[in-house]
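Note to self: keep these together.
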Amino acid sequence: MHLRTTLLGAVCAAPLLLVLGGSTFAASLAKHCGPNDKYVVAFSQANYAEPYRQHVNNDLIERAKAIPQFELQIADGAGNDNTQTSQVDNFITQGVDILLISPFEAAPLTPAVARAVKAGIPVIELDRRTNGTPGKDYTAFVGGDNYKIAYEAGTYTAKTLLPDGGEVAVLEGLPSSTPAVERLNGFKDGVKQNPKIKVVAEQAADWLPDKAQTAFAAILQANPDIKVVYASNDMMAAGSYLAAKGAGKEGQIGIIGTDGLPGPAGGVRAVASGQWAATFTYPTGAEEALDLAKKILLECAESVPATVTVPTLAITKDNAAELDKKLKF
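Structure:
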């Protein structure tokens, strides 16, 4: 895709193993690399509808501005597997230098990722995984540990919000996405630390606030003694807050979100204002993904970590107001 004029560029562009003087040197991960060229970094985003997804996009855009060799292109998968597959195939046809992807669903996007890998394009999966093993079926995975994040939310519920026990509900994301399953299981395992807590309802709301509001309203009618609801993302937490308010239970139910989004409609502000009990950040991974891209494209890395786990932060009444003032995006 790029003209190489230096010996370094020629060496880095070689896709084969080099054997010199009896020693074997592994080829770089990228077909073309080196610090003096321009590269297209393509990102296939699952959708633009979720505020978290836009948060990721904004973070990537801002951080990419500091890397003059990179041209960032972002495509909106529109929450549709076929649309996202077509966009990935277009990136492959264009011959982009590296592909970042947050797959809408795991299985349907797995073949598209495989085609990119076969075309020699390094693939970094961000936040969500396709089927397969990082470092083998694709280059790397960057994201938070969804199970661990939810487990911490469960621990906070068990030890801080409901030390004397009580009934809780869980609003799950899109069941066919890996984060939804991991967050559901993580929270349920976390609250098991307190045998006095009982999970009385689980309902998928597909990450959407309106579905969460409807679902939690129905849950409250059937289970009026619920004391805490864990929502697998901030949008569903917002919906559950509206449901609680509509049921005349505002301030009586501890609402926990996940994502820790900034801004007027984000979870950080909701905790700071006292509407929610807590939210747990799901980091964008933008910095870590671009660091991997720099290693692969600018430094001609022969290998990178197959998995980069970005830690979470518990946002509670103790730190929410301060964080709300600091967060940019």
